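Hello again, I could really use a second opinion on something today. I've been staring at a protein lately and its backbone has me curious. You're getting the sequence in one-letter code plus the fold written as tokens. I'd be grateful if you could look everything over and explain what you see. No rush at all, and the record is pasted right below:
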Amino acid sequence: MSNRKHVECIKKQREAIKSADPSVGWVRFKCAGDNGITGQYIEYSQTVKKRDGSEKVVEKKSFITHDYCPFCGEKYT
């Protein structure tokens, strides 16, 4: 996969997340792997309502594991 195509793929995913939840302000992707499990860290900001009704921006993190090797593309069994 060319670098340009990779950038477009990430851009498409970022826009899909933001369009699914309009309160999301930004999305950041980072590749990672621990203990033989590879995946994608995703960080984003989201506007949430506080108990008093005012809004605040919070930063959230998530981790999605790959079901394939990101280096050779072979699916994990």
In short: Strands lie at 24-34, 37-49, 55-65.
